[in-house]
Design a protein that fits this description.
This protein has about 400 residues and is α+β, with helices and mostly antiparallel strands. Helix content is about 50%, strand content about 15%. The protein is built from 13 helices and ten strands. It has helices spanning about 10-25, 30-35, 40-50, 70-80, 85-100, 100-105, 110-120, 240-245, 245-275, 285-315, 320-345, 355-365, 375-385, and strands at about 125-130, 145-150, 150-160, 170-175, 190-195, 200-205, 215-225, 230, 275, 280. The strands form three sheets. Strands 1-4-5-8 form a four-stranded mixed sheet. A four-stranded antiparallel sheet has the order 2-3-7-6, with no helix packed on it. A hairpin with a 2-residue loop joins strand 9 and strand 10 (about 280). Helix 1 runs parallel beside helix 4, helix 4 runs antiparallel to helix 5 and helix 11 packs antiparallel against helix 12 (about 355-365). It binds flavin-adenine dinucleotide. Flavin-adenine dinucleotide binds near residues 160, 372 and 375.
């Protein structure tokens, strides 16, 4: 029933089919149970790693497949469209493109040491950027890394670090030069691939609305020592390195949300065809059918924008506006599809049995993170329209 514009070549369809075969081993009951019991999806992650999929966008010389963001997007769209929904995406997301800064700015020795282990699943990484007092204004982060000879010492606090409970390593952004000593706020921030040393790193789970299979955490750093050789690239350039990976991250996230929207819409259409009230299937009422048709069109349009953005990125062309627009359109279309799926199910939309309420709780996060709607609209207003 669904269009899948992203998988528009035989090779891309092969990626889709292989990832789908893994995802299909884990059904709604499996994921519903993990959500209820707040249990991390270890088996699913192991299967994805065993298939080599964590290395889809990693360079071949370090054991990856060397494919582009388009193929990675296809993979994540399939994962989003599976019963695992956003939880399944979040369990592996950071491995797919979050280590791009190491690929691009890390030394050969770092890549040789880390990337094969990340690809095999031996090392799990998490992403420590957001802080309670800085929010989306990343340059205002306060976590400090002070150099002492051959290592840095880190003190500070991060919030929302997803998968920190399971992670061995943290892609960590910290300030190495105080803000007031920098010519620009974007300077003086440094990126590390730090060990999560339990003696100096304390992790506390944040109770939240959904995606319970994958934890998000407050992380407290109290004297974490990071060897200089675990610094990524140059001191003070961390913000620039993070910016480098923003466009592919937006695109991947758009693809995930599209998959999620499609799954919700599929369920809604099936229910609308089967559920009989007043002597006929509820889908025979235009009030039920039309919003679903609208969601179909909006998801398809957002998918075309996502494909356009990913192909621009893969061919080395600028894609900031397109990647942001794709994320905006996908998140809106996905949210609407999920909302309509709940309403189509009526009272049963609110019951755990049909899983659409789990989908909805997870979908809400995609309006907020990794970047909010408002910040995307700010970006487009400023860069495309010369406003703000
Ligand atoms: C489920 C989940 C998982 C996450 N995982 C991670 C992770 O693994 N690692 C990590 O580092 N972070 C993670 N985050 C953090 C996420 O990236 C931030 O929550 C997000 O960037 C928003 O920051 P904030 O909550 O501090 O919002 P704030 O910056 O406090 O903003 C609050 C609201 O104000 C709006 N706003 C702020 N400034 C402006 C402005 N100038 N113009 C218009 N509107 C504005 C925002 O759009 C938002 O709606 C996660 C968050 C969630 C919810």
């Amino acid at each position: 029933m669904m269009q899948e514009a992203l998988a528009n070549t035989p090779e891309r369809q092969a990626v889709r089919d292989a990832v789908r075969a893994i995802c299909d081993r884990y059904d709604d009951d499996y994921w519903g149970e993990l959500d209820r019991t707040h249990t991390f999806p270890h088996e699913f992650c192991r299967d994805i790693a065993a298939g080599g999929w964590l290395g889809i966008a990693m360079p071949a010389e370090y054991g990856g497949s060397g494919l582009g963001v388009t193929e990675a997007s296809i993979m994540m769209q399939v994962v989003g469209a599976s019963a695992g929904y956003f939880a399944a995406c979040s369990a592996i997301h950071i491995n797919i493109f979050g280590l791009h800064s190491i690929v691009k700015h890390g030394s050969d020795a770092q890549k040789r040491e880390w990337l094969p282990k990340v690809i095999s699943g031996e090392i799990r990484a998490c992403f420590g950027v957001t802080e309670p007092d800085a929010g989306l204004d990343t340059t205002r982060i306060k976590t400090r890394a002070v150099r002492r000879g051959d290592h840095y010492v880190v003190h500070g606090q991060k919030i929302w670090t997803s998968t920190a409970q399971q992670a061995h390593k943290i892609v960590l952004l910290a300030r190495t030069t105080p803000l007031e000593e920098c010519a620009r706020p974007t300077e003086g921030l440094t990126l590390f691939f730090a060990d999560k040393d339990p003696r100096t790193v304390k992790v506390t789970e944040i109770p939240k609305m959904g995606r319970h299979a994958v934890n998000s955490n407050q992380v407290f750093y109290d004297g974490l020592e990071i060897p200089v050789e675990h610094r990524i690239g140059e001191e003070g350039q961390g913000f620039r390195y993070i910016l480098d990976s923003l466009n592919p991250e937006r695109i991947l996230n758009a693809a995930e949300v599209l998959g999620m929207g499609r799954r919700a819409l599929d369920k809604a259409a099936r229910y609308a065809a089967e559920r009989v009230v007043f002597g006929r299937p509820i889908g025979k009422n235009q009030a039920i059918a039309h919003p679903l048709a609208e969601a179909w069109a909006e998801l398809y349009a957002a998918e075309l924008m996502t494909l356009h953005a990913s192909e621009l990125y893969d061919s080395g062309k600028p894609c900031g506006a397109e990647a942001n627009a794709a994320k905006l359109l996908a998140a809106d279309a996905g949210f609407k599809a999920c909302d309509r799926a709940i309403r189509t199910h009526g009272g049963m939309g609110y019951a755990a049995e049909y899983h659409v309420e789990r989908y909805f709780r997870e979908m809400v996060a995609c309006q907020l993170a990794p970047v909010s709607r408002e910040m995307i609209l700010n970006f487009l207003s400023e860069r495309q329209l010369g406003l703000l």
